[in-house]
Amino acid sequence: MASQDDILKLQQDIVLTLKNIYDPEIPVNIYDLGLIYEINVDDELNVVLKMTLTAPNCPIADVLLDDVTKQVSAVTGVKSFRLDLVFEPPWNKDMMSEEALLELGFL
What we know:
Order of helices and strands: HEEHEH
Number of strands: 3
């Protein structure tokens, strides 16, 4: 059974990993873009990540989801990984970080 510190460290490592994955059509990482809705880590270090896409018919969805699965699964400490793709609530630019808004010229 993992400690709370282990769980928090793993969540932080996952966030760092997600900040290195970019939507190929937008020059912002998927975390700051607001595509990650939840990162759940249980006390056995099983990870469930809920994410969305900028649009349900995103042409690069398969590539992006595969990249997320491969990279998060490879984070040291992850016992198992499941990616849940959700579309509720629908993504909008208000979900973007201030950094992403600045990068894209919205601020």
